[in-house]
């Protein structure tokens, strides 16, 4: 064990490789705060989180002025205690996206450092429950795409060994039904089709649409309502046979507790970059396990592959490649399944020359 001696911060602004449009927004930029933590032994852990285009510099300022100074001199192995202390330190701004995103960057760096010092890959250190996780793709299912493009992408994914694809919904209901039906007819009954509304509907509309989607045999309806409408989700669950998926827009493990206790969801999509790091991600995953609920995390496939392999109730990894410009090797995919890296640490092969080159001007800070 060794004390933390230095924390380095920077942010990279990544542009999506394909146009991404859903029912409420366009994903035009991934601001990626990055944290490098060095301990007295010279060991280095690298962590990160993300936004979808706004708030990145606010995250960086919270890291620079509040969170990073607070961990200098702390024992780098005290991950749980550091996470809880930082949560208390920021109690005036929690629960909130900016705080959770900032904490995630530090927490993932601490897990990376610990795993490297112990010589263990994250998926083993955090549990070691699975060797591979099925993949589904979202990259060809965006709302602006024409029906023919949706069909083409789903067929390509199936040919590549993927077991499912996700389609965005939020067009007029008859158009959504037509688009989903076209994909179902093309791929057949053995391929999962997931749908994602990105919080676009009110409860009455969600119930109506769920009933229209039910004959099309979809795997889940994701974020049908605003994330803070737990009672609405409970009503929807009671009125449909479709699995209801929530979680990408929840920023506290306690919010997941409320959903699970009230039987207001069927799938948990906890996002390590939004929940506050690996420490609370694992809390949510194991809590869901106690309710016999599957974990199918949102985004960040390069990190979620290891976390999913760590727990027994992870069912899917979402394929959206976004770190290619910052890494020297991609996530391993074999027969349509994501394979966690056996390298010590998070399992992400960072290209630090590329990271330094792409860093946002004025975002670099070193604290010691």
From TrEMBL:
Keyword line: Magnesium, Metal-binding
InterPro entries per record: Enolase-like_C_sf, Enolase-like_N, Enolase_C-like, Mandelate_racemase_C, Mandelate_racemase_N_dom, RHMD-like
Swiss-Prot/TrEMBL GO biological process terms: carbohydrate catabolic process
Cofactor (UniProt): Mg(2+)
Entries under Pfam families matching the protein: MR_MLE_C, MR_MLE_N
An annotated Gene Ontology molecular function: magnesium ion binding
UniProt keyword annotation of Lyase present: no
Protein name: Mandelate racemase/muconate lactonizing enzyme family protein
Lineage: Bacteria, Pseudomonadati, Pseudomonadota, Alphaproteobacteria, Hyphomicrobiales
